Amino acid sequence: SESFARLVAAFDDPKVGVAYGRQLPHKDATPISAHARLFNYPPTSCSVTVSDRHTLGIKTCFCSDSFAAYRHAALVEVGGFPAAAPVGEDVLVTAMMLKRDWTKYYAADAQVFHSHSYTAFAELKRAFDIGAFYSETPWLSELFGGASGEGRRFVQSEFRYLARLAPLLIGFALVRTGAKAIGYGLGKRNRFIPLSIKKHLSLHRDYWDKQTQH
Fold it and tell me: Which tens digit of pLDDT belongs to each residue from 149-190?
C-alpha cells in the first residue's frame, strides 16, 4: 500500500534502524481514544537519535510495532526481539538500536487507522504491564529518564482536549487516569505481589506463567 511504501522509504537513509508511521483514530473512536492517537502521533515527521534524550526524555525510544518496520541488520545487531516481555518489545528494541547509534524515524505521512477504547479496569491492567516492563528494564529510565513527566504532559493535554470537545467525559477521564496511575505503580512494584494476583492485574497472564518456568 501507499502508506507502507512511505514507511519503508525511511530506510533510504542508511542510518535508520527503525521507522514507524502515524496511527490515526478510527472514525467512531471516542474523544478519549482519539486524543491518545493525536497526542502520540503528531502530523510532523522527524528523525531521532540517542542524543535527543536530553530534550525528549523517555519519548526518545517511543515506537509502536502496530505499524513499524525494522532494518534487518539493525535488528540482528541488537539480538532481535526479547524472548519474553509483558509489553514494550518495540520500545526496548528501539532503545537498544539508539544506544548503538542507529536513528529512529517517525513517518507522519505513512498513515493507518488504529485506536482502542479501553475500560478503566483494562487501562489499569495495561498500565500494570507497562510498569512491570520498566521495572525489569531499569536501564531505560537511567538512560532516557522516567515516564512520569511524559505522563503528566499527556494528562494535561487530554484535559484541555476534552474541555474543548467533550467536557462531560472529564470525570471519566479522571477515573481512567487514576486507574492508570494505580496500575503503573503496582507494576513497578510487582516483585512484591504474589503471582496469582499479578496474573489478575495483567492483560498478559501467559507472560507471568512463563516467568515461573525460569
Answer: 888 999 999 999 999 999 999 999 999 999 999 999 999 999
pLDDT at 212 over 80: no
What pTM was computed for the model? 0.92
Distance CA(57)–CA(55), nearest Å, equals: 6
Query: Which residues lie closer than 8 Å to 101 by C-beta, 6 or more apart?
Result: 15, 49, 50
Distance CA 214, CA 173 (A): 39
Residues 6+ away with beta carbon under 8 Å from 154? 39
Per-residue buried b or exposed e for 106-145, using 16+ beta carbons within 10 Å of the residue's own CB: bbeebbeebbeebeeeebbbbbbbbbbbbebbeebeeebb
16-24 β-sheet, strand order: 46-48, 103-113, 16-24, 68-70
Confidence of residue 213 (pLDDT cuts 50, 70, 90): low
Domain count for the chain, please give it: 1
Per-residue cell: 143: 538512560
Q: Indicate the helix (H) or strand (E) that contains 17.
A: strand 16-24
- Which structural domain range is residue 84 located in? 2-211
3-class DSSP state of 78: coil
- Helix (H) or strand (E) segment spanning residue 159: helix 148-165
pLDDT at residue 214 above 80? Answer: no
